[in-house]
Amino acid sequence: MLKRFPGLEILDGEPIAKVSFDAPKTTSTAYVKKGPMPNAFPSPMAGSFISGVEPTLVSNFLLRFFTLFDTKRAELVDVYNPAATFSFSANTSIPPRARIQGFHAKLPNQKNLEWSPWLTGFGGGSRNLSRVGDVEKMAKSLHVGRENVLKSMASLPTTKHDISGAPETFCLDSWLAGASLFVTVHGQFTEEPAGGLRSFDRSFILAPASEGSSAKAQGWDVEILSDQLTVRSYSSCEAWLAGPMVVQPGSSKVSQMPQPQSVQTSNSAEGAITSIPEPQRAQVAQLCQQTGLNVKFAVDCLEQNGWEMTRAMANFEQVKGSLSRDAFAL
Questions:
Q1: Residue at which a domain ends, from 240, 255, 277
Q2: Residue where a domain terminates, one of 179, 212, 240
Q3: What are the pLDDT digits (tens) for 58-96?
Q4: pLDDT exceeds 80 at position 184
């Protein structure tokens, strides 16, 4: 109703809630567009990190694991705990970045790839819970025990991870959580014999190999408690390269973070977003993106709501119908 009748004061005998932050109906604000909208998130992508353990422990484990996964999967049986779990999930959609850059048309062997081996496989097949609604299949697609783990992995296509190639094609995060070590790897592999590229995410929960365990006997420093593999359409390593997190189509990594569009106001209350301290700058950019507000009004909204994003969004939803056009970016 407020959108249709902006001047409405009372509805059904109740006063209409008005904007609770400074939002004058008229303003002499002059907007100066200095360039295109930002093409990157306010915070840049950081590089790989390993926390809490010696990096060589993680790198040695991954080097040996992926070498055997590519060549002799059966020999991985010892590194899995007797009660270990494993699941694989296939995400068949082509990521927007990959679609824009045309990987599936430009790379020579992408059209030779098929999803059927990843969707079926051993037992319940792909455990993509966003697409699997059958509880029985959910249970079957979680493989428990090292024997079932190996049977499941043996049913998957042959892979080749170029772990000795360019390091930027993989991204690694690892940290301690109590007595467990979490390891997450993002990267790519070649699927044989098709020769096409896939992107993947693989998450491990590891524990120290105990004395007398088969993992320790075979020279492993750790054993696997949980292993989750997600296979995706190829989208290159650009998404996790350290630097700006590019979001606009056709953009590429740049050496310097672009700044959000600035505005000039007659009272110079806020100026450009670059004058806002870093912790608040990200909130302002987020609110501008989600609501369409210009910087000045986004700052006013956040200030009047204690810089709490949830309250600011709720406040905006309550009063957006009564805001003038001046409150929004051009």
A1: 240
A2: 240
A3: 999 999 999 999 999 999 999 999 999 999 999 998 888
A4: yes
Q: Is residue 3 situated within a structural domain?
A: no
Domain-embedded: residue 248: yes
Share of the chain above pLDDT 70, in %: 80
Amino acid residing at 128: N
Are 63 and 123 in a shared domain?
Answer: yes
CATH, residue 85: 3.10.450.50
323 shares its domain with 226:
no
Rounded-to-integer distance, Cα 155 and Cα 86, Å: 13
In a domain, 119, yes or no: yes
Q: Which domain holds residue 114?
A: 49-240
Say whether both 173 and 320 belong to one domain.
Answer: no
Residue 278 pLDDT: 57
Encode pLDDT of 229-242 as tens digits: 999 999 888 878 77
Closest among 124, 129, 123 to 91, alpha carbons compared:
129
Are 143 and 164 within one domain? yes
What does the pLDDT look like over 5-21, one tens digit per residue? 777 777 777 777 655 55
User: How many domains does the chain contain in total?
Assistant: 2
Question: Over the range 24-62, which residues count as b (16 or more CB within 10 Å of their CB) and which as e?
Answer: eeeeebeeeeeeeebbbbbeebeebebeebeeebbeebb
